[in-house]
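Re: the 202-residue chain
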Amino acid sequence: MTHSDPLRALRILLEFRGAESPRCFPQQRRLVFMARRSWPRNNSWSNRCGVLAGAGQFGRSDQGIFSFWINSWIRNRPLKYIGFNGHGHQVRDCLHPRDIVPLLLAQMSDGRRNIDPIINLGGGISNSLSLAQLSAWCETRFGPRTVTADSASRSFDVPWLVMDCSRATELWKWRVETPLRAILSEIAAHAEANPHWLELSG
């Protein structure tokens, strides 16, 4: 890819997958700087997000784990704690997509070009929980069920992934607005109203 191909660079940025894997960070950073060089009068930012969650999120174990877990719990689909001794102690944070909108508006009007364009976004510690804690929430709302255990380890499994959003707060006064419990309740209401969501989104 050459520096004269800005549309392709932008398309790759928008379609970029796997930001959770450290192997992808160098390529992601390179694409952002290429976009900046291609549009010298415009700014390009790469908002590296943690887990986005809310009503209508895909119900997949690899994309949308909160939606997948809640939908599977309601439908009595098989659920399994994989890795880390099979206790469900792996932790993720979650962020509602609407909380990103004020940040995007701030970035569009920001003319600074001498700062690192890679920005971490996520729910932070206050919006994080383990799979075991998510199961406890589901049990309280929907009733008990069995989650099996598999202690086998998998490549690139991360035991604790909570995004540090301090730069976004420092640069644009951004903060998370939607609390964890509100996100889970929204997903649950959507799951109850859409009984075939796993088939449609999986």
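The domain at 45-201 is CATH 3.40.50.720 (Rossmann fold).
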